[in-house]
Amino acid sequence: MKDFYPDFIENKPAKKSYRSIFKWGAKDVYKHPNIRMFKMLKEQLNMSDDDFTNILSEGNDVIELKNQEVKISSECVEDIKNIAGVDNVSIDSYDRVKYSHGQTVEEALALRDGEIAETSDIVVHPKNKLIVKEIVAYCNDKNIPVYVYGGGSSVNLGFKPVKGGITLVMKTHMNKVIELNEENQTVTVESGIFGPDYENILNNAKEIYGTKRDYTCGHFPQSFEFSTVGGWIAALGSGQQSSYYGDMYDIVLSQEYVTPKGNFSTIDFPATATGPKINDILKGSEGAFGVCVSATLKIFRYTPENRQRFSFIMPSWEDAVKTTKEISQGEFGNPAMLRISDAEETDVALKLYGVEGTIFDKIMSFKGYKKMERCLLLGHTEGEKGFAKNIKKRVKKIAKRNGGLSLTGYPVKKWEHGRFTDPYLRDSLQDFHITIDTLETSVKWDNIHQIHENVRSLIKKRPETICMTHASHFYPQGTNLYFIFIGKYKTNEEYKEFQKSIIEKICMEGGSLSHHHGVGKMIGPWMKKHLGNEQMEILKTLKKHFDPNNIMNPGGTLGLD
Amino acid sequence: MKDFYPDFIENKPAKKSYRSIFKWGAKDVYKHPNIRMFKMLKEQLNMSDDDFTNILSEGNDVIELKNQEVKISSECVEDIKNIAGVDNVSIDSYDRVKYSHGQTVEEALALRDGEIAETSDIVVHPKNKLIVKEIVAYCNDKNIPVYVYGGGSSVNLGFKPVKGGITLVMKTHMNKVIELNEENQTVTVESGIFGPDYENILNNAKEIYGTKRDYTCGHFPQSFEFSTVGGWIAALGSGQQSSYYGDMYDIVLSQEYVTPKGNFSTIDFPATATGPKINDILKGSEGAFGVCVSATLKIFRYTPENRQRFSFIMPSWEDAVKTTKEISQGEFGNPAMLRISDAEETDVALKLYGVEGTIFDKIMSFKGYKKMERCLLLGHTEGEKGFAKNIKKRVKKIAKRNGGLSLTGYPVKKWEHGRFTDPYLRDSLQDFHITIDTLETSVKWDNIHQIHENVRSLIKKRPETICMTHASHFYPQGTNLYFIFIGKYKTNEEYKEFQKSIIEKICMEGGSLSHHHGVGKMIGPWMKKHLGNEQMEILKTLKKHFDPNNIMNPGGTLGLD
How confident is the model at residue B374 (pLDDT cuts 50, 70, 90)? Predict the structure, then answer.
């Protein structure tokens, strides 16, 4: 008898359905747990095959917007149409719901149940920065809230229009490369450009621009395919290769900004000593100060042929942490991608990356790397060939000294293959009432173990809950911890309470409220506690400066209001 | 007959004299031009041997403070004594003059002539941060200006107490290492610690702290020996090895800050996504927001044995620029120190670094590297051995491809030997009425030649004026230009007018107002033009937030008031 495997949904969401809004990514792409992972889930979550036969709320009904009339006067709507062009303005219910929702788990849970949270009244697709300026000025004058939608991948209610008003959708028209400057190794783009479009142009710069070389943007967050440059900057994203290329904070040289207070471009010098840097003050402001309409970013030579891959199984999490710390502090340059999974995640990763059941699996066991103790370390390098090779050599030495066993570059290739597709798992699991979500934090080397243990133990205290953790962005001074927690919840409220308890725990243990997801309205309530009153007041002063009438992303962003 | 060589002053400045204040560095250390440089100066500045026989204003009179009574009431002075301790408060004339002057050329010129600019009324040497807090709170209450003196090496009237009040001298007591955290590779120091004390402790960490390794701070500005960590942060300094270690902006992880508005410590995570970074907002605020009492900084492994040195003579400035651009964009890691001198500076450098007259000189000429065309490129690497060696290998390849001739590591060693002593030349030249000063700017690769040519040609338009230029801090996107201009001026006014015309030119040509000297009160007047009104208003808003009564470094700092 063949093992049971669920009949996962693979059809496209129905047109104008709830599902078409909450489903991650491309509408016709799905990713399901493989058979090994399915079995693990069943066991860990105490589920039976039967639990995987009925799908209760697929969310394929056509959305219905009740009691949410457009609250903005029809004169205003006409004005906006006059500014932005009638084709670029919509008060259609579906559009309003679509552009009011991101990828926060609680949003998906609600939409599945046919519940619609606050929406904006008008959706506007600005054609260019002049229109953005006019709209922001108009809204400031009329006190109409303005929310900015980049790619819509926020996982913390980043652009949720809790006060109604207008949502500016940047991806529709404002998605062009403005200039590629090979001399300076910079590119200037409109903020609504998507990751793949941006990267494709850079990868083919020779052909498209007649440059001497091809380039890469160096920034590959997991949301890469469905997020925009503007969103990366607004929420301070980090790419999966940030240990070499830097975080988005490091990559942005200058921005053109539209605010209720005025419009300006910061200067794109690589460094200056002319007082506090305005460009940096804007980064991470999550739409609460204004709208980034374009940005100038560093680009990097595109040399995939130089990439060196490595993976190791380490005896324990302590050994894995020690190894990555030594790598990050080794002063031989950083691997671009580097990640370590704790024991529970390693167990799943070995299933996902095709190691379980292979000869490597046998060798690991034979050599005494114990299940639920051993930890996976993956990495690859970028940059010039000799540089990249030297890194691999040093990494090998350090990993072996700390008890590592090489698993070759194979699992890394598997990881690279699936690097952007894991988020698709969320919907497949949710179809069977399993909720997967993530929270992440920055840690220092001297508090990583405390935070890992204590946050993990809070999560594991809940019965039948999986907690997988990895660190994936490295600095000489520390790294991040990324907690993935999987469970079944009776109600959305139960889920949200649990999520809150984890955020609270991270905050209490001294982790940062976010390493690269941003804060949004979901984590905003903890900001004052995290930063302290004095520092919150600085952010509030800046907010008031740029946006005295509080029209930009109002309603809790960064805990500002 | 032996060639004439001037009888340069070598005696210690007289006690309590003007000279004891304006003289750079250690009181018993002098550095004079060598015979070759002396001859060059004489020729270029159209001077005779006779001009080098009479010293007009040595500045060795005891200072006299006329018409500058202490304007603060004696009750206030008593209050300050009660807060800071009577031994740590001075209203002595000499102290007031001393701690009111930095190393700006116009200050030295005035002091030589017995002219004393504005001074603060009281000099306070705070024992600890609690006293700083009390004093700032007291001064905020009474509207007394507060100026902060770190090491006193500002070259742009950074802490000049133009409004009188109190000068806090941080170096006297607040100069300790608070904690060395080897796990995180960080150190926390009081802001008044001097470079050498700081570096010595790190270099001997194993012995002092029982760490596993010795460390380096990685930040070596030319003022290193006489500047403090607090000053480095306040003015956004860059060390001579910044191309590898980063600028001070990159090195500071967190700060403890005292402001009229309140006191707080930023959080020392290596990265976060929790809104605009308060730590970065404080950097470069030049004492106008508050007082940095301590800071946590990145430290680096101390491995001088790995250093690889290289130098090349390049056919032209264009070739030198191209070479360093290719190095900086080569993605094999950056040399720590890298510098290129333009043709005029090369001419002097070859004299200074002992190349002129050697076999190398002959080879250069034989191979066609022409005087006043050829340009010197110097560099050395830091970091892990394999990493460092690979950089040297790549650099060699790039330099040779661009027509470079290796001059070995010898000139680099000479440069290293004199790296901190060149500023001593200023006083020796000034003794014979020759004024040497510097202005510097950030440039991008696509405007480096325009800025270099046009600023240089403005300087050279003045008769009998030497202009030497180098670039010494490198990024993939650009570098800096450092203009050294030497001339004779009839009056201080004439000098100041000339200096202003250069700043104006840099600004007009699109260079940054400063790459690493900071802005101070000297360049403040250009800030609005440089940043634009909108961005100046952001800085002013922050200023008002932290310091509503404008007591912190008032009188033109950063162009804020």
Answer: very high
Question: CB–CB of A277 and B262 under 8 A?
Answer: no
Q: Which residue of A has its CA nearest to B302?
A: A331
Residues of A in contact with B543 (CB under 8 A): none
Q: pLDDT confidence of A1, banded at 50, 70, 90? A: low
Q: Does residue A89 fall inside a structural domain?
A: yes
pLDDT classification of A355: cutoffs 50, 70, 90: confident
pLDDT, tens digit, for every residue of B464-522?
A: 999 999 999 999 999 999 999 999 999 999 999 999 999 999 999 999 999 999 999 99
- Find residues 394-423 of chain A whose CB sits inside 8 Å of chain B: 394
Q: Is the pTM of this model over 0.95?
A: yes
CATH of the domain at A147: 3.30.43.10
Residues A288 and A235: their CA atoms lie apart, in Å, by: 11
The tens digit of pLDDT for each residue in A81-123 reads: 999 999 999 999 999 999 999 999 999 999 999 999 999 999 9
What are the counts of helices (DSSP H) followed by strands (DSSP E) for chain B? Answer: 22, 18
- Could B394 and A386 be called an inter-chain contact, meaning their C-beta atoms sit closer than 8 Å? yes
Within a domain: residue A543? no
Check pLDDT > 70 for residue B437: yes
Q: What phi-psi label fits residue A144: left (phi over 0), alpha (psi between -120 and 50 degrees) or beta?
A: beta
- Residue finishing a domain among A172, A195, A220: A172
- Supply the range of the domain harboring residue B338: 304-419
CA–CA separation, A368 and A339 (whole Å): 22
Q: Are residues B233 and B343 in the same domain?
A: no
A548 contact B CB<8A: no
Q: Which chain A residues are Cβ-neighbours of B533 within 8 angstroms?
A: 262
Q: Are residues B285 and B182 in the same domain?
A: yes
Dihedrals φ, ψ of A430, to 5°? -60, -30
B218 and B311, same structural domain?
A: no
Mean pLDDT of B433-450: 97
Interface predicted TM-score of the whole assembly (ipTM), two decimals? 0.97
The reply to whether B507 falls in a domain is: no
Select from A274, A296, A389 the residue whose CB has the most chain B CBs within 10 Å, as the one to mutate to test that interface.
A274
Helix (H, G, I), strand (E, B) or coil at A155: coil
Q: Is B322 exposed, middle or buried (0-12, 13-18, 19+ CB in 10 A)?
A: middle
Interface test with B, best of A538, A542, A547, A557 (most B CBs within 10 A): A538
Distance CA B561, CA B546 (A): 14
Structure-model confidence comparison of residues A57 and A19, the more confident one: A19
Same domain, yes or no, for B233 and B328? no
Q: Are A311 and A327 members of one domain?
A: yes
Domain end call among B419, B452, B475: B419
Q: Do B183 and A253 touch (CB under 8 A)?
A: no
Q: How many domains does chain B have?
A: 2
Q: Does A460 touch chain B (CB under 8 A)?
A: no
SS3 content of chain A, % helix, strand, coil (to 5): 40, 15, 45
Instruction: Give domain status of residue B289, yes or no.
Output: yes
A407 and A330 share one domain: yes
Nearest to A508 by CA among A460, A457, A454: A454
CA–CA separation, A235 and A118 (whole Å): 21
Residues A122 and A213 placed together within one structural domain of the fold: no
Distance of residue A437 Cα from the nearest chain B Cα, in angstroms:
18
Report, as an integer, the average pLDDT of A209-217: 98
CATH value at residue B216: 3.30.465.10
B318: CATH:
3.30.70.3450
> pLDDT tens across A40-96, in order?
999 999 999 999 998 878 999 999 888 889 999 999 999 999 999 999 999 999 999
Q: Do A249 and A331 fall into the same domain? A: no
Residues A395 and A399: their CA atoms lie apart, in Å, by 6
